[in-house]
Amino acid sequence: MAELILSRALVDEMVAHAAALYPEEVCGLLAGQAGRASRFYPVENIHHSPVAYEMEPVQQIRAMLDIEAAGLELLAIVHSHPHGPARPSPTDVALAYYPDQVQLILSLAEPERPALGAFTIREGEVRAVAWGIE
Predict the structure, then answer these.
(1) What element of type H or E holds 108?
(2) How many folded domains does the chain comprise?
(3) How far is residue 77's CA from residue 96's CA, in Å, rounded to a whole number?
(4) Which of 6, 12, 61, 87 is the most buried (most CB within 10 A)?
(5) Residue 57, preceding bond cis, omega within 30 degrees?
(6) Which residues make beta-bridge pairs with 69?
(7) pLDDT tens column, 34-88
(8) H or E element in which residue 101 lies
(9) What is the pLDDT of residues 86-102, one digit of tens each?
(10) Is residue 132 part of a domain?
(11) Global pTM exceeds 0.85
(12) Structural domain for 63, as ranges
């Protein structure tokens, strides 16, 4: 994917979800077509932790099946850092099980100014992915 494009409404939806469950990390999936995100699928973080996440497996599978049924592509795996920066933590790097998938990280370290970062993580190497809001 050359660039991930998000709408302001989709960003606002992700921020609202993260704020509602603050200080827990939230997680989910972002779907769309041709790099343009059109749906956010929140998935429960079974750890309910401010420093770690793991998607609830049944919800994750349901979201993936819905993405496929809608004719969309999985564009990104989303999670928040309630207190940290919008970049992968050492844990994120160690647990990056989908090396070809964009990891979209939402930071609420400054709640009045949420920040986003997009990355791929392959064999411990983190690479920024271009993204934008339109």
Answers:
(1) none
(2) 1
(3) 10
(4) 6
(5) no
(6) none
(7) 999 999 999 999 999 999 999 999 999 999 999 999 999 999 999 999 999 999 9
(8) none
(9) 999 999 999 999 998 99
(10) no
(11) yes
(12) 18-35+58-72
